[in-house]
Amino acid sequence: MQDKFIQSIRYKLQKRVRKLNSADFRLFSFNLRSFFAFFEASPILCGVRDELLAAVPKDELDKDMALLLSTSREVPVKDTEAEEAALGYVFLKHCMDNAETFSPHEVGFSYGGKDGSGGLDKVRQVFLEPFYEYVDEHIDDQQAILYFLRKYKHRSEWFQRERLHAIAADETGTAEKSLAFDLYEYLHDQGIDFSIEPKSASGEPDLVTEQVGDNKVVADAKVFWPDRSKAKSYIIKGFHQVYTYLRDYNEPFGYLVIFKMCEDDLKFMVPPTTAMFPSISHNNKTVFFIVVDICEYDRTASKRGQLKVYEITSQDLIHAVESPDIHQKGGDSHLSEGQP
Q1: CB 3.0-4.6 Å disulfide test: which of 54, 62, 111, 274 passes with 286?
Q2: Contact 42, 73 (CB under 8 A)
Q3: Quick check: 293 pLDDT over 90?
């Protein structure tokens, strides 16, 4: 995956971690601010962080932080590397945001630090090291896919809008298959490590099922076009399909790429996160929603008037996977298509 680019990001990250490891408790907060300024300016690092935080329930992290910040300074026990890394990120972010009033080395005392310097060493060992190692190990694998999906969205909207619009408007029934191939071709060109078997002449299996190997990129493409009966309920069905793939292939993350063919807006009313795309987690499976606007507007933004907004809520999505029969029987008429 673009070895020189990844090596550059890894080297810059390593250099900033080295500064944090050598700083005393008077300079630690200053260097931590510099560390996060670099980290949050890098889309690929943010992509790794977003998927890490999606893998660990927020209420669990909130509970752990409450223990750490309590007067008793209780120590949370974590079972997995992802949990350790996510807590490390949240704790370090708290240190930066509250640098003037919070002394991280005091939490280090709970882990065996004997003085200010020793307490800070424990903070680095317990919080910084697991977070850094997790990011370093995942920066050049599929965990960075959100970064490339962001690039795909920009590339499609800025440079490929007309071509993709023509594909989506195809009435032969192959539009979404062609859009999915465009997406997978782009990811393949960017170096995402996955393999797809040759297509069978007797059928057209989904791109997810065609992949070989243990790690599958669970992504699917859907068109959002209310005038063609592809509105709210249609997108929810797409979510159900991606979620089913995640369950079938035991993958933690999936991506629903939605090609918007109309002026109407599509809004996901899901819990807010720091991620670059909205997402929802259910039963340890997380689906990210990437809306690619390929509508060919005939009026400028100032002359379009009030947009019609289609809202999809967390309840809509969870109901879809807990009551799959609505998709098998076509009984989805109870799903309202949104209000202007």
Answers
A1: 54
A2: no
A3: yes
Q: How far apart are CA 327 and CA 321, in angstroms?
A: 9
Tokens, residue 119: 């307490």
Q: For residue 215, give the 3-state DSSP assignment.
A: coil
Please give the DSSP secondary-structure letter assigned to residue 339.
Answer: B
CA–CA dist 298, 63 (Å, integer): 51
What are the pLDDT digits (tens) for 238-276? Answer: 999 999 999 988 888 899 999 999 999 999 999 888 788
AA identity, residue 52: L
Domain residue spans in the chain? Answer: 3-138, 142-328
Buried b (16+ CB within 10 A) or exposed e, 131-147: bbebbeebbbebbbbbb
Contact 322, 285 (CB under 8 A): no
State how beta strands 253-260 and 265-269 pair.
unpaired
Using the 8-state DSSP alphabet, how is residue 127 labeled?
Answer: I
**Integer Cα distance of 63 and 86 in angstroms:** 13
- The 10 Å Cβ neighbour count of residue 296 is 10
User: Are β-strands 253-260 and 285-293 bridged in parallel, bridged antiparallel, or unpaired?
Assistant: parallel
pTM of the model: 0.75
Do residues 243 and 276 make contact, with C-beta atoms less than 8 angstroms apart? no
110 within 8 A of 75, measured Cβ to Cβ: yes
The pLDDT value given to residue 244? 92
Under 8 Å between Cβ of 260 and 293: yes
The helix/strand/coil state of 260 is strand
Beta-carbon contacts of residue 166 (< 8 Å; ≥ 6 apart) = none
Distance CA 168, CA 176 (A): 7
Sequence-distant (≥ 6) Cβ neighbours of residue 157 within 8 angstroms: 292, 293, 294
pLDDT digits (tens, 9 = 90+) for 187-214: 888 877 666 665 544 444 567 766 777 6
For 219-241, what is each residue's pLDDT tens digit? 899 999 999 999 999 999 999 99
- Which pair of structure tokens corresponds to residue 185? 């071709």
Burial of 60 (0-12, 13-18, 19+ CB in 10 A): middle
